[in-house]
Specification:
heterodimer; A: 427 residues; alpha/beta; FAD/NAD(P)-binding domain; Enolase-like, domain 1; six-stranded mixed β-sheet; five-stranded parallel β-sheet; globular; disordered N terminus; B: 106 residues; alpha+beta; Ubiquitin-like (UB roll); 2 helices; 13% helix; 20% strand
């Protein structure tokens, strides 16, 4: 497929914006890629902007994929971050359904898989991440699926129907959101988690227990400590096989066991890669003409004083803005506090900060009953993260406490009778 | 198509058409109006699309949900007309809506 959206180079609209014959190529028409293109114009880039994407779509919002897009409430046009004509207006071109096979940094050219060579002055990598595959006997059976792209969800939709049996492999956020939505669509849903609790790597045990309880109240079965060894079926999946010998019937399997950053192009081009494409505080790689942003990057997070890679919309958007500015010669610092959200059933989970390496958890509200509470994570007496369930004030004010490194009275914090705002006043 | 007027903190005025059914946030994002960040894409999760609905329109826009009200209490510089623009969907009745944008969303 070869689409050029947003106008050919001859279009008047585009020409109005192109004052110089320079070109910035963006590899990856992702959330980060789309934002980077727009931010380039806003930062004063006067040359050509060409975003190359492997999917046949303009940049779209991924979070609704496992939620309202899966359920059919939202359609592709609703997912698009901006409509086509708005990119056209500011002279942003898209080459969609195309993949780059090589970056030649010396010649400052990229080669597409079908052979076309395009020269760049500046390059941005917003290549995102790909799902981690589960390579087991039967993995290639029809109905054994993943959830990352529009096409993944379109495939899942072919297998759903009332009372059908869905097995979700992986009790992370994607798995839980998918389970919640499939349950709402009246499937029989079971989650298989290999470790001893869901959300094992990302939350405290109390929070895992809360999500386990709510899912079971809603009719989702969660099985932990399960090792899947393969899938059986004739032309399509009909069962999931486990290490203890049990066999579980399934009409549909959705695997959500994490993602791997897309770094192959960067690596082949000799850019520094460590768990992601390495970028500095300006989102530039070790080649100053090449920036990177979003899920594919690895960077030093000053607040947490370590190198991290993030899979989030916040990171994609904020890094894209800093990267675009840097490519235009304006060196801003990227130091935003990470935040995330997840919608499941009637739960809105909002997370600020990174809870990894916490040494203390302060609960506000009771996760063992009801559907509203928050867990604040501390390390060495300092708040580092909050998981807020149906508690937007705890999320918003927690975010401030964490980013400003304020000290809080943990006793008062744990008392829901003390309003969060009251707590802030005394800081 | 209904028209929304966005007035930025620096006084810049953008009058844009926003289709019925689209949110006031989407109108700002589509037209690359800076003052609206809209990180969560309109799911009432981030409060980075905060705006002030003009006095004349305050009672004409549908009321905020409890979730939105809670978040509005914690935004920078809340005022009486404060709303999350992702939660205001345009209708023909809102043609001419005027919203002011805060200096910062964070």
């Amino acid at each position: 497929m070869h689409f050029i959206f947003s106008g050919s180079v001859n279009s008047k609209e585009v020409l109005n914006h192109i004052m110089t014959d320079t070109c910035c190529i963006i590899i990856g028409a992702s959330h980060a890629g789309g934002q980077l293109a727009v931010s380039l114009r806003q930062s004063g880039w006067e040359g050509r902007i060409l975003a190359i994407g492997s999917e046949p779509y303009l940049p779209y919002n991924r979070p609704p994929l496992s939620k309202t897009f899966l359920s059919g409430e939202k359609h592709i046009e609703d997912l698009l971050i901006r409509p086509e004509d708005q990119y056209e207006k500011v002279g942003i071109e898209f080459l969609l359904g195309q993949e780059v096979s090589e970056i030649n940094r010396k010649a400052k050219k990229v080669t597409l898989t079908h052979g076309e060579v395009i020269a760049y002055d500046k390059l941005a990598l917003t290549t995102g991440a790909s799902v981690r595959k589960l390579n087991l006997p039967g993995s290639d059976l029809r109905g054994v699926l993943y959830l990352r792209d529009i096409s993944d969800v379109e495939q899942i939709q072919q297998f759903i129907g009332a009372r059908k049996k869905a097995v979700i492999i992986g009790g992370g956020y994607i798995g839980l959101e998918t389970a919640a939505m499939l349950k709402k669509l009246d499937l029989d849903v079971t989650i298989f988690e290999a470790s001893d609790r869901i959300l094992n790597r990302v939350t405290a045990p109390d929070v895992s227990a809360f999500f386990t309880r709510v899912h079971s109240e809603e009719g989702v079965t969660i099985k932990t400590g399960v090792n899947v060894t393969g899938f059986g079926g004739e032309d399509r999946v009909s069962e999931v096989q486990c290490a203890d010998g049990t066999v579980f019937p399934a009409d549909l399997v959705v695997i959500g066991i994490g993602v791997i950053p897309n770094t192959a192009l960067a690596e082949a081009a000799g850019l520094e890669v460590r768990n992601g494409i390495n970028v500095n505080e300006h989102c530039l790689t070790n080649d100053e003409d090449i920036a990177a942003a979003g899920d594919c990057t690895n960077f030093y997070q000053p607040h947490y004083e370590r190198e991290i890679r993030l899979e989030s919309v916040q990171n994609a958007m904020d890094q894209a803005k800093v990267a675009a500015a840097a490519l235009c010669g304006n060196l801003n610092q990227y130091n935003a506090l990470p935040w995330f959200w997840s919608d499941q059933f009637d739960l809105k989970l909002q997370i600020a900060g990174l809870s990894e390496y916490f040494d203390e958890v302060v609960l506000r509200g009771n996760p063992a009953e009801g559907r509203k509470f928050s867990a604040f994570y501390f390390r060495d007496g300092r708040m580092i993260a909050v998981d807020a369930v149906n508690s937007p004030q705890e999320f918003m004010l927690g975010k401030q406490i964490i980013s400003k490194q304020l000290e809080v009275d943990r006793n008062r914090l744990s008392d829901p009778a003390v309003a969060m705002k009251e707590l802030m006043v005394s800081l | 198509m209904p028209v929304v007027t966005y007035i930025s903190a620096d006084g810049a005025i953008n009058e844009v058409e926003v289709a019925s059914g689209n949110s006031v946030m989407q109108g700002a994002v589509d037209n690359m109006i800076d003052g609206i960040v809209a990180e969560c894409g309109g799911s009432c999760s981030c409060a980075t699309c905060h705006c002030y609905v003009d006095d004349a329109w305050k009672d004409k826009v549908p009321a905020a949900s409890e979730m939105e009200k809670d978040m509005l209490e914690c935004v920078l510089e809340p005022q009486e007309g404060s709303r999350l623009s992702c939660q205001i969907n345009m209708t023909d009745d809102l043609d001419g809506l005027v919203v002011r944008l805060p200096e910062s969303q964070f």
